Structures are given as C-alpha cells and as structure tokens.
Fold 8-oxo-dGTP diphosphatase.
Amino acid sequence: MGIVVGAAIISDGRLLAAQRAAPAELAGGWEFPGGKVHHGETDEEALIRECQEELGVVVSLGERVGGDWPLGDDMVLRVWFATVVAGTPVAREHLALRWLAPDELFDVPWLPGDLPVVRRVRQMLPDLLGLSE
Ligand code: C5P
C-alpha cells in the first residue's frame, strides 16, 4: 500500500490549491501539494520535503485532516494542515497555484481522490481559523 501525503496549506484564511501538470490523465486537475513517501522517511518528513521541492517553501505541519483517504486500490492519501514558515509558494512542478477563500473551495476541479478531503477541510476550517461560535 503506497502512502501519498498532501498539505492543506492555509494563509490568511485561504487554502492553497495546486494544478497538476502531469501525468496526462491527471493534468489540469487540482490537488493538495505533496507526493509519495519514500523509504526511510516519515510521512511528515516526506510532506515537508515535497512542499520544498514543489513550492519552494518550508512548512510547519498542524492537525491531520481525517485518516487514510483511498486513492484507487493501492494507495492512500494522508493530509495535514500546514502553514508556510519560510518562502512564498511558487509553482515549480504545477501548472498553477490558487489561494481559495472559504467560499471558493469548490471553484476548481479537484482530483477525485482529493475532493472528499476538501469537504473535510471545509468542515474543519471555522475551528482552525477561530471563527466558530
Ligand atoms: O505527486 P505524485 O505523482 O508523487 O503522486 C502520486 C499519485 O498520487 C498521483 O499519481 C496521484 O494519482 C495521486 N495524488 C492525488 N492527490 C494528491 C497527490 C497525489 O491523488 N494530492
């Protein structure tokens, strides 16, 4: 079972979404930045590495978003909230980046595996942003 990690990066109340460049069948779809966990690294180390590689930033990881989200038959997606502690995200490997406000979260065509996670992020966001009553 392969493990893919993703970052729900929040800044100024907005969620960072990244548009995949490859492979062809996923290109144009939007995802949480991240990627496969390598042998010998923890999930958290992998996610920090991927954010550095893909976005050129150092992130600090916060709360996990749910548990294992299925990606097909042989992979799971694990997602953490994150904040940028150094740098400004740039699309090094993606086609584009967007900072989505809470009312824009579903304005992009998320990859099917990421979409249920975005729904969970939406549920968790008010608490995270300190906006809950
Ligand atoms: O980014 P990377 O190619 O390493 O990811 C491996 C696979 O995990 C992708 O082919 C894609 O199917 C899936 N993935 C995803 N959502 C993400 C990251 C990766 O569905 N946020």
Strands lie at 2-11, 14-19, 30-31, 34-36, 58-64, 69-71, 75-86, 96-100.
